[in-house]
Amino acid sequence: MAFDKLNYIAMKMKKSLITSGYKAILILAVTLYLPLNAGAWGMLGHRIVAQVAESHLSNKARKGIKDILGNESLAMASNWGDFIKSDPSYDYLYNWHFVNLPAGLDKQGVFNVLDTEKGPNVYNKVLEMAAILKNKQSKADEKLLAMRMLIHLVGDLNQPMHTARKEDLGGNKVFVTWFGEKSNLHRVWDEALIGYQQLSYTEYANAIDYPTATQLGTWKTYSLKDYVYGSYEACNKIYANIKPEEKLSYKYNFEFVGLLNEQLLKGGICLANVLNDIYN
C-alpha cells in the first residue's frame, strides 16, 4: 500500500516536471519569435512622436482631440495600436502598421505604389482614419478608434523600417547583435537605439523639438506621401550601411542617432500636420 502511494507520488512529480518542461520550451519559443513580430517605434518612440506633436497643434485641433480623448494625452494614447494586439478580435489591424516598398524606387515610384496598392497599409489607413475624424456623421466609438490608430500609425509611417522590404519583413530577418545581444535590424530601430539614449519620452521630445525654420517650413508643406518617401530614403540608407550578423554598438549609435532623431521629430511634425488639417 505504501509502495503504491509512493509510486503515485513519483508519477505525479514526473508529470509535473514534463509539463514544466513544455512550458519552458513554449516560453523560449515565444521569446525567440517576438523579434520577428516587433511593432514600429517601441513604446518610448511613439510617445516621443506624440509629445513633439503636442507642441505644434492649433487650438482647434487641441479642442477636437480633447472632445474624443478627454484627459488622455496624445502620448498616452499613442501605444494603444500595439497594446490592442493582445486581443485577437483586432488581428485585422496587423497590416495597418507598415507598407512594403521594394528597393530601387525613385520618388514617383514610391508614389505609384502608394496610389495603386489596394491592400491595407500604413499610408491608406492614416488617410482613412483622418476621413473618419473629419466626418461629422461618425459615431463616438468610431472616432475614438480612429484617433488612437491615427496617432499610432503616423508614428509607424515615420519609422524607416516600416517602409522597408517585404522579403526580410522590414529588417526583422536581418540579424545583428546590439552590444553583444542577439537582435535584428528592425528591433534596433524600434527600441534599441532610442533606449540607448536613456531619456524619458518628455526629456527626449524636449531635446529634439528644435526644427530649424527651413525644416519646419518644408515639413509643414509635405503631403503624407512625402513623409512616406522620406522614411523610404532613410530606410535605404539603413540597408546600405548594414551587414548580416554585424556587431552594432557605439559606432552605430554615433553614426545613426542623428537620423533617428530627425525621423522622430519629423514624425511629430507630421502628426501635428494631419491633426491640424482635420480640425482646421
Keywords:
P1 Nuclease, 280 residues, 13 helices, disordered N terminus
Characterization of this structure:
- Helix 2 (43-54) packs across helix 13 (250-279), helix 7 (122-134) runs parallel beside helix 13 and helix 8 (140-157) packs antiparallel against helix 13.
- The longest helix has 32 residues, at 2-33.
- The protein is globular.
- The chain has helices at 2-33, 43-54, 59-69, 74-77, 80-83, 107-116, 122-134, 140-157, 185-196, 201-208, 213-221, 224-240, 250-279, and strands at 175-178, 181-184, 247-248.
- The protein contains 13 helices and three strands, in the order ααααααααββααααβα.
- The model is unreliable at 1-38 (pLDDT under 50).
- The chain has 280 residues and is mainly alpha-helical.
- A three-stranded mixed β-sheet has the order 2-1-3.
- The protein has two domains: 1-37; 39-279, P1 Nuclease (Orthogonal Bundle).
- A hairpin with a 2-residue loop joins strand 1 and strand 2 (181-184).
Main β-sheet: number of strands, strand sense, barrel status? 3 strands, mixed
Low-confidence stretches: 1-38
Let me know the CATH homologous superfamily of the largest domain: P1 Nuclease
How many structural units, i.e. domains? 2
**Highest CATH level, the class of the largest domain:** Mainly Alpha
